[in-house]
Amino acid sequence: MNEKNFEYLRDQVKYSGFGEGLENQLKENIKRQPPEFSLQHQATFGKDEVNSALHFKRSATTDMYFFNSYMASMKQEQATEKMNQTFYVGKDNNITLKEGYNLMNGRAINKDLTNKEGKIYNAWLQMDFKQTDNAGNFKLKQFHSNYGFDLEKEVSKHPVKELQNTQDKSRLLDSLQKGNRQAVTFIENGNEQRRYMEANPQFKSVTVYDASMHKIHNRQSQQVQKSNANKQEQKNGPEIAGDEERDHHSGKKAKKEKGMSISQ
Fold first, then answer.
1. In the chain, at which end, N or C, are there fewer CB atoms within 10 A of the end residue's CB?
2. What is the rounded distance in angstroms from the CA atom of residue 199 to the CA atom of residue 204?
């Protein structure tokens, strides 16, 4: 058995979000040297169940195996049918199991990708449920950096307590970039309220839900932010409020550019 190949694949499976539970099965299959094999994995996210088949294939010229793809099958709690999607695996920046689950739920993830020339670029990915490829997989829409979506800026439009702490802010933005619907704390009229938030790059915004997972219109959330700001002005006095007002009006408007594409 090619020990280095096994160790590489073991780590690749682990960091793709499938943990360490498949290690023994992986080793046994590599020892048997079949042309190709699959490993089965089961996970639960909240009340949703995701079953995955990880596909491996041996090189035609050496004893090395490659982790080529995994097919995720999701059964949501109230859905009547399962949803299937194949995610392809390369050397770097693969879509992890949790990211794949988030995509299948319609949320967007942020990834560093490599183009045909080998150059790395950053983009938000979101599943296009209206288009499928020849294999029946939903295509992925891409929103490049010049599309104009600024996650931190959009989150800052809301009265999020976690933005007041550098570490909490970093963890929040990182979670949103992975496509999670992240729990946050809103400060509303001096009171803390549990809210949930997810990135929405296509509409250059973030989507906010209340504690019962009901969507809150962005305007309502921004009104709370404005109300909190007004109270802070009254507390600080007219001189500080005037400084904030001048800063606000001196800001430059963001340049609007189109940068959305759909991967083939």
1. C
2. 8
Mean pLDDT over the full length of the chain: 85
| Structural domain boundaries enclosing 84 | 3-105
CA distance 195 to 160: 9
pLDDT confidence tier of residue 156, bands split at 50, 70 and 90? very high
**Better-predicted residue by pLDDT, 256 or 59:** 59
**pLDDT beyond 80 at 241:** no
DSSP label at residue 182: E
Q: What is the chain's length?
A: 264
Contacts of 13 (CB under 8 A, 6+ apart): 22, 23, 26, 39, 54, 67
Contact (Cβ atoms closer than 8 angstroms) between residue 135 and residue 86: yes
pLDDT recorded at residue 255: 38
d(CA 15, CA 89): 12
Gap between the Cα atoms of 146 and 249, Å rounded: 24
Q: Are 148 and 204 contacting, i.e. CB atoms less than 8 angstroms apart?
A: yes
Indicate the DSSP class of residue 14: I
Co-location of 11 and 86 in the same domain: yes
Whole-model pTM?
A: 0.80
Q: What is the mean pLDDT of residues 7-36?
A: 95
Q: Which residue has the tokens 């040297």?
A: 33
Backbone dihedral angles phi then psi of residue 214, each to the nearest 5 degrees: -95, 135
> How many structural domains is the chain composed of?
2
pLDDT at residue number 230: 52
